DNA sequence: CCGTATCCTGGAGGATACTG
DNA sequence: CAGTATCCTCCAGGATACGG
């Protein structure tokens, strides 16, 4: 049994999935792999996610210390950038591994 | 846009998550990393999953060609073993990466 | 530009009882 | 031993409209 951030997980694998699982978190992290992105830039990369869901997932990732949100202007139009924290960087090998297998599967096991 | 097994994914990362996402699939695959296990052996490793859910997840993994189910006896008590397919083996680097990060997080970022 | 507010739905997963 | 069969709950995520 593993405990992390006040939650219990029955396996080390489920702990990780608790942090990056769900439909969108790995996609967000994948798009942040090369540096910061603005909210609308993320939306552009992920055309099929709704605003509400993107917003919620970003907030969860921020609360978990995986990404950080930086606001550059105080008056509208706001400029906000999202980027990986140092802790979030430690997840990059996992995210990369996940992304690479997706490419591998499409290229070698297409139907 | 990526297409795999008749489903569409907006990102290579979401394709992989479509195959191994959810609460239990990575846990099952993690426990099968060293070889075959019987149904009740899996249950022993995963005491908090319900029978129905375990059964459903195993069936999904089998349908996706990731694990294979082998029946050794025709009369009760049945002997059934689950193991990775060759295709499932290609997921092991991903599963290992996920599992190792879980251990890393607990050891280095505990609260 | 960067979100939040509301309302809603589908399906993942749980509890429990039963079967070949 | 290895599951199914039912029934049920809960919440991630979607649709859409509006706000700082």
UniProtKB/TrEMBL annotation, chains A, B:
<keyword id="KW-0238">DNA-binding</keyword>
<dbReference type="InterPro" id="IPR002577">
    <property type="entry name" value="HTH_HxlR"/>
</dbReference>
<dbReference type="InterPro" id="IPR036388">
    <property type="entry name" value="WH-like_DNA-bd_sf"/>
</dbReference>
<keyword id="KW-0805">Transcription regulation</keyword>
<protein>
    <submittedName>
        <fullName>Transcriptional regulator</fullName>
    </submittedName>
</protein>
<dbReference type="GO" id="GO:0003677">
    <property type="term" value="F:DNA binding"/>
</dbReference>
<feature type="domain" description="HTH hxlR-type">
    <location>
        <begin position="11"/>
        <end position="110"/>
    </location>
</feature>
<dbReference type="Pfam" id="PF01638">
    <property type="entry name" value="HxlR"/>
</dbReference>
<keyword id="KW-0804">Transcription</keyword>
<dbReference type="InterPro" id="IPR036390">
    <property type="entry name" value="WH_DNA-bd_sf"/>
</dbReference>
């Amino acid at each position: 049994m593993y405990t992390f951030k006040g939650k219990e997980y029955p396996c080390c694998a489920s702990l990780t999935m608790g942090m990056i699982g769900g439909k969108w978190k790995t996609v967000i992290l994948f798009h942040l792999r090369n540096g910061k992105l603005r909210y609308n830039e993320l939306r552009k990369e992920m055309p099929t996610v709704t605003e509400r869901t993107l917003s919620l997932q970003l907030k969860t990732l921020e609360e978990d210390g995986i990404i950080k949100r930086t606001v550059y202007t105080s008056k509208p139009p706001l400029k906000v950038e999202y980027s990986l924290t140092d802790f979030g960087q430690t997840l990059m090998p996992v995210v990369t591994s996940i992304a690479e297998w997706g490419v591998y599967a499409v290229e070698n096991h297409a139907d």
